[in-house]
Amino acid sequence: xxxxxxxxxxxxxxxxxxxxxxxxxxxxxxxxxxxxxxxxxxxxxxxxxxxxxxxxxxxxxxxxxxxxxxxxxxxxxxxxxxxxxxxxxxxxxxxxxxxxxxxxxxxxxxxxxxxxxxxxxxxxxxxxxxxxx
Length: 133
Known about the structure:
Helix 1 runs antiparallel to helix 4 (84-132). This protein is 71% helix and 6% strand. The protein is built from 4 helices and 2 strands; from the N terminus they run H-E-E-H-H-H.
């Protein structure tokens, strides 16, 4: 394989690596959005097991000792519907995706830039050699 073909193939691989990084960062952003929706939006729960009546519950973060935090002690079902472990699990799943996405994006971007820099240096060396002859 000639040098130019190898360089073009290397840059294509770098773009693919960078694209995988962007994809994983997008997945992490979706997890963060899902977690934010769970914590910041009000929701409804069924008061009785038969499902005939519903109750409006405050969001998990905007309440202080309200419907979301007191639980079944007062006879409401809000605490069991959206509990902290679910939100923390979703947030925890975003961490590996964000780290891997950041690493892949950085590697892909730096590889492409280093390849472009090496090509520019080869061209400059060729111009300098042509001038010195």
